[in-house]
Amino acid sequence: MNALLAPGARNAALVFIFITVLIDVLAFGVIIPVLPHLVQEFVGGDTSTAAYWTGAFAFSFSLVQFFSAPIQGALSDRYGRRPVILISCLGLGLDFVFMALAPSLAWLFVGRIISAVTSASFTTANAYIADVTAPEGRAKAFGMIGAAFGLGFIVGPLIGGVLGDIDHRLPFWFAAGLALINFCYGLFVLPESLHKDKRTPRFDWTHAKPMGGVKMLRDYPQIWGLVAVVFIANFAHYVYPSTFVLFADAAYGWKEKQAGYVLSVVGVLSVIVNVLLVGRLVKAFGERRAVMFGLACGTLGFLIYGLAGTGWMFMLGLPISALWAIAAPATQALITKQVPADAQGRIQGSMSSLVSLAGIFAPALFAGAFGFFIGPLAPVRMPGIAFLIASLLLAIAAFVAWRFTDSAHLPAKAAGEPAA
Fold first, then answer.
1. pLDDT for 85-139, tens place per residue?
2. CA–CA distances in Å: residue 115 to residues 57, 94, 111, 260, 342
3. Topology classification of domain 8-192+213-404
4. Which three-class secondary structure state does DSSP give residue 404?
5. Structure confidence by residue, pLDDT tens digits, 290-307
6. Domain ranges of the chain
7. Three-state secondary structure call for residue 384
8. What is the pTM of this model?
9. Is the dihedral of CA 338, 341, 343, 346 positive or negative?
10. 300 phi and psi, to 5 degrees?
11. Largest Cα–Cα distance of the chain, in whole Å?
12. Which DSSP string do the residues of 268-286 spell out, in sequence order?
């Protein structure tokens, strides 16, 4: 365990990270119900055109993160986790102000690019968790991060939907305030987690390059199967930011408020799963089986979404797809057990690059399929097509987890791994 933090301080540090991630997720969550509608407003109200532009926004966001995430990971390995988290929170807050004032679609697009550069705290938070928790406790700790995401998506979209119903710009101002509060909070209470003697001796540009960071994964062939699962599952997850808000409008007539309410229900279920079920189910199933169980639930949940002809049928899929949340912390735990302490930040940065690489292509697929199948050239109107594609992808991820991670459930102790 990291000697920098005393035993009592470790739990406090996890609480600090939980709150940091929570506030960041709240800041992002409040704009989810309104950003596609703001784009729709700029393009004259056409849903199909707005879907293509929303996909372009998500494509560009992930493209920029593909380049910036490994730099952030390498910086946190060299200079510590705390400064990276603080700088990202400050930049994010200022960028939300920029987007709130954007006078056109072009300027809103620029603001979204800036937020891709500054949103570093999620990647660094994962490395922070690996710094301060014993290997056997990491799945539960990563579940806390999942709970922060869930809790943020309970309150964030709900607030965003209500504020967006008043003015589409108001949620951006609210998000700016949250991110700046987060910066002030971290400035005074967030301790450093990576001791100086565990940091890399210099900033490594080889690992800071996007493909350089990905190439680093070649040094850890034991995690390749797990990395493939992370990539495919995150590719599927992009169906939400790419299509959900416009899909809900096109399929069921749900506007900002209704979409915010549904996303809040998703958040409630995510918190329940992460807080009450992740630790128990990972302990009962083992990490490998927990990964496959979570992916199977996600596959079924997305299938229900894609085929649901009414809103209440869509809601039936929510508790099933919520169990997908079990897969992510179990996968993260398996990966971190096989990576040494001084490489955790770079590995997390490398995986974030892969997630961003998935996000480069996923919005084009999901938003493009959605836009086409609700447009005038569609052979049949099928708003749920993107969810059906995501369901197929999660089924593939489950197969990969079953086929290529036979030895991952009993990993060898990573070189340099601190004793619990």
1. 888 888 888 888 998 998 888 899 898 888 888 775 677 777 777 777 777 777 7
2. 11, 9, 6, 22, 28
3. Growth Hormone; Chain: A; (1.20.1250)
4. helix
5. 888 999 999 999 999 999
6. 8-192+213-404
7. coil
8. 0.67
9. positive
10. -65, -40
11. 63
12. HHHHHIIIIIHHHHHHHH-
CB 355 within 8 A of CB 212: no
Residue 356 to residue 60: CA distance in whole angstroms: 10
Question: What is the number of alpha carbons within 13 Å of residue 196 lying toward its C-beta?
Answer: 0
Yes or no: say if 259 and 286 are a contact pair by the CB < 8 Å rule: no
Closest CA to 393 of 313, 333, 310, 324: 324
Torsion of CA 355, 375, 160, 15, to 10 degrees: -20
Q: Please spell the DSSP secondary structure of 160-171, one letter per residue.
A: HHHHHHH-TTHH
Whole-angstrom distance, CA of residue 35 vs CA of residue 211: 31
The answer to whether 130 and 1 have CB atoms below 8 angstroms apart is no
Instruction: Give just the sign of the alpha carbon dihedral 104, 376, 384, 355.
Output: negative
Closest CA to 354 of 219, 217, 206: 217
The label of the residue with tokens 């506007």 reads: 255
Residue 26 carries which side chain, given as an amino acid letter?
L
